[in-house]
Amino acid sequence: MASRGRDEDKKRLSEILSIQDLRSVSHSKMDQMAREYYDGGAGDGVTLKDNEAAYDRFIIRPRYLRDVSQCDPSTSLLDHPLTMPLGIAAAAMMKLAHPDGESAVARAAADFGSVVCLSTFSTTSLEDVHKAATTTTSMSGKRPCFLQLYIFQNRETTIKMLNRAMKAGYDAIALTIDSPYIGRRYNEVRNHFKLPSHLKLGNFEENSGVKVGGENLMEDIESKSRKQPDRYDPSLEWDKDIQWLRSVCGNMQIWLKGILTAEDAELALHHGVDGIIVSNHGGRQLDHVPSTLEALPEVVDVIRGRIPVHVDGGIRRGSDVFKAICLGADLCWVGRPILWGLAVAGQDGVRRALDILLEEFELTMKLAGCTHVKQLSRRMLAKRDAMGYQSRL
Ligand SMILES: Cc1cc2nc3c(=O)[nH]c(=O)nc-3n(C[C@H](O)[C@H](O)[C@H](O)COP(=O)(O)O)c2cc1C
Ligand SMILES: O=C(O)C(=O)c1ccccc1
């Protein structure tokens, strides 16, 4: 029975040609609460839509007659090889999509040659995910592994988690800086979003005081944050907290996730972080902030190669990865496409999402006249506007 199910999944997967196909099929695999939690954004969804739409405002300026018979889409991260400049973004509660949850995603990433950033609010323990993310049959050498961090008001909760992450072998922490509070997400209120009772948070004891299940996410954070100690800490500041984090992170690198301006990029550099991720949380936090593709150039310009700059939000095709790398990102992280793949067929569905993005990225490189990621530059793009397009960026 189980193998028949897997055969059916395989057949269905072979008919899925794009991330859009995966998104459509995933909708029939999730109930309304999970589907809208995954796909939805904050407020009116202006930023959510703009993250994707921004990619259509940039056009590729291809160069021809440049021998593209060989093409190498690979790169590296923290000295580990990656099949392409692509990582799997932190997403909470992956078992809402599929019972194999985060471990299936981590296994697919390891076999493909990608990197996982595990959410603080995973439904699998960080130790199990690290094992899955670093055990691979197809890639040689150690695999990189990131842990996304929310800092709690009770710092002991955060310290405990960081100590576990160090012991398990995580390479880097990605501190999410765009969420002192949870954004306004109407779907979570309307659907009475909660973690179903058969699922548990993987990184906290039940008596730890950290919860997202059993209560509406928004009410949970907003009305109870002042009464209960173990909520995100909205008082974080550059000066005191980055230094504190450094003192409790051992050898793990510290990255900031959620940078959208040159000003904050400069502060990040000044505070000695190891890398930054240009992100607006997939349009789930403050609505009406810039699309990440359009925020990227000002951040890249101020950082000037001194630390790596990554980007996430709205990446749905290999050509989107191509455009983000042309605008100066070292790597793209994808969120929802992975969740859609997971919902459709567990590990195989995640692998399908990754394979689609790789095939498309490689073909885009070749058709644009590039054979190595290092050749991607702003000169390969133009920006469309009401008058036509500007050929120089
Ligand atoms: C369902 C869902 C849950 C998420 N949970 C987290 C989280 O726990 N921590 C975090 O920093 N970002 C979280 N994110 C944001 C992602 O890390 C990432 O910034 C975003 O999904 C990228 O946009 P994309 O989904 O358009 O690729 C979540 C995103 C989604 C869709
Ligand atoms: O949904 C999210 O985007 C998110 O970051 C989150 C995860 C768990 C609890 C609250 C918010």
From TrEMBL:
Q: Where is the active site?
A: 281
Q: Which SUPFAM superfamilies match?
A: FMN-linked oxidoreductases (SSF51395)
Cofactor(s) the protein requires to work: FMN
Location of the FMN hydroxy acid dehydrogenase domain: 11-386
| Annotated binding of glyoxylate, by residue | 37, 150, 185, 281, 284
Tell me if Oxidoreductase is a UniProt keyword of this record: yes
Protein name (database record): Peroxisomal (S)-2-hydroxy-acid oxidase
Q: What are the protein's UniProt keywords? A: Flavoprotein, FMN, Oxidoreductase
Per its record, what are the GO molecular function terms? Answer: FMN binding; oxidoreductase activity
Check the record and name the PANTHER family matching this protein: 2-HYDROXYACID OXIDASE 2 (PTHR10578:SF149), S -2-HYDROXY-ACID OXIDASE-RELATED (PTHR10578)
Binding annotation for FMN = 90-92, 119, 148, 176, 257, 279, 312-316, 335-336
Report the GO terms under cellular component: cytoplasm
Q: Which family does it belong to?
A: Belongs to the FMN-dependent alpha-hydroxy acid dehydrogenase family.
Q: Does the keyword Oxidoreductase apply?
A: yes
The record ties this protein, via InterPro entries, to: Aldolase_TIM, Alpha-hydoxy_acid_DH_FMN, FMN-dep_DH, FMN_HAD, FMN_hydac_DH_AS
Leader peptide range in chain numbering: none
Matches recorded under PROSITE patterns:
FMN_HYDROXY_ACID_DH_1 (PS00557), FMN_HYDROXY_ACID_DH_2 (PS51349)
